C-alpha cells in the first residue's frame, strides 16, 4: 500500500516523467544562451551617464543662482529658472522652490550613483537586482516630475519630456532585467 504524501514531501517521479524531465534539461542545455550582456550593460551605462550629466548641470545652475559660478557659465541646465517659473502659479516662496530643487538634485545624484554601481556589477549575478534598485529610484523621480507637472499645471513646458523619460526608463529596466 502506498504511503500518503505529506504536503512537504515531493513524490518520486514516474519512469515516463523522468524521461520528460531529462529531455527538457537536455533541450535547455542545448539552447543557445542569450548574449545580450553588452547591450544591457550599455543601457545602464547610458542612464548612469545621463543622470550624472543632468545632476552636474543642475548643480552648476544652482551655483550660478547663488553667485558661486559666473552668470555667463555655459554648462548649466537652466532648470532653476524653469522651476521658479512653474512654481510661481501658487506664489511658492523662494526658499521652498530652492528646497524642492535641491531635493531633485540629490535624487538625481542618488540615481546616478546607483546606476554606476549597477554598471560596475554588470558581470555579477546581482546585476539585475542592482539595476532594479537603481531604476526604481530614477523611475520614481520621473513619476514625481509627472505629479509636479499636474500640480503646477506645467503641461506645455515639460510634461511631454517627463513622460518620454519615464517610458524610456521603464523600457530600459525591462530590457536590462528580463531573464535570458
Structure commentary:
By secondary structure, this protein is mainly α. The chain has one domain (36-177). The protein contains six helices and no strands. Helix 2 (37-65) packs antiparallel against helix 4, helix 3 crosses helix 4 (94-120) and helix 5 (127-151) packs antiparallel against helix 6 (155-177). The radius of gyration is 25 Å and the shape is elongated. It starts with 14 loop residues before the first helix and ends with a helix.
Detail the poorly predicted runs.
Answer: none
Averaging pLDDT over every residue, what do you get? 88
Major beta sheet summary? none
Rg calculated over all Cα atoms: 25 Å
Number of helices: 6
Helix proportion: over 70%
Domain unit count: 1
Provide a compact summary of the structure:
By secondary structure, the chain is an all-alpha fold.
Amino acid at each position: 500500500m502506498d504511503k500518503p504524501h505529506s504536503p512537504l514531501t515531493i513524490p518520486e517521479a514516474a519512469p515516463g516523467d523522468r524521461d520528460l524531465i531529462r529531455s527538457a534539461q537536455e533541450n535547455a542545455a542545448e539552447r543557445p544562451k542569450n548574449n545580450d550582456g553588452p547591450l544591457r550593460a550599455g543601457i545602464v551605462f547610458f542612464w548612469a551617464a545621463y543622470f550624472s550629466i543632468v545632476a552636474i548641470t543642475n548643480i552648476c545652475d544652482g551655483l550660478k543662482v547663488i553667485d558661486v559660478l559666473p552668470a555667463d557659465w555655459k554648462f548649466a541646465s537652466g532648470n532653476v529658472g524653469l522651476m521658479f517659473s512653474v512654481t510661481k502659479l501658487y506664489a511658492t516662496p523662494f526658499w521652498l522652490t530652492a528646497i524642492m530643487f535641491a531635493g531633485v538634485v540629490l535624487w538625481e545624484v542618488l540615481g546616478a550613483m546607483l546606476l554606476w554601481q549597477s554598471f560596475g556589477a554588470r558581470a555579477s549575478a546581482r546585476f539585475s537586482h542592482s539595476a532594479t534598485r537603481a531604476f526604481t529610484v530614477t523611475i520614481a523621480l520621473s513619476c514625481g516630475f509627472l505629479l509636479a507637472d499636474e500640480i503646477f499645471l506645467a503641461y506645455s513646458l515639460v510634461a511631454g519630456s517627463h513622460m518620454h523619460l519615464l517610458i524610456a526608463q521603464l523600457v530600459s529596466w525591462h530590457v536590462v532585467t528580463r531573464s535570458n
